[in-house]
Amino acid sequence: MLTSRTIRSSGFTLIEMVVSMTIFALLIVLTVPTMRVWVANAKVRATAESLQNGIRLAQTEALRRERLVVFTLTNTPNPQPGFTGGTVGPYTYWAAQTVAANAGDTPVVVGFGPLAPDGSAVSIQNFYVSLCFNSVGRLVSEYSPGVPGAICLAPNFPTNGVFMWQLQVPNQAPADHPLTVEVTLGGKIHICDPTQTFSASNPYGC
Prior knowledge:
Elements: H1 4-9, H2 14-65, E1 69-74, E2 93-98, E3 109-114, E4 123-125, E5 130-133, E6 162-168, E7 180-184, E8 189-192
Antiparallel strand pairs: 1-2, 1-5, 2-3, 4-6, 6-7, 7-8
């Protein structure tokens, strides 16, 4: 037969419940900011990889087709030849299109996709958001690549002939691991951390 003492000891007292809820609330308060930064870091990483993959696709198609291909950022979700690119950011998509070789040539969109995995907009700190790859995979200048708003310039700026695109996620906690996508004149594409210095022992630095 259960005694009254046994019954009382099988549950929580009001004080124990209040203490437990207080501790749980404190853990939530301490964890939420960390989770927000982690989410921002993950989104920046996914966006950097999407941007890198899109640039590599444009470069690969230029090599495969042996013709000029323009890569640009855009806010057009399903781009067709002649879509608007190089618009004012933040941006939601990237796209790559062949550049007409002559008046009778028809441009072809060779690939496109979202920048962020959830389809949201991303800020990129670089005024020039278009790249043109020639038939050997190098960056070249092209002022009329057939995409309204897109202008390709060979990266003899800002530093050592390298395009540097720093990624930001608007309206979210700042990432404590920001990333930059670098593209060299020769066509090398590299994701790096601008807070670190590139070296033989640290390939993740910029």
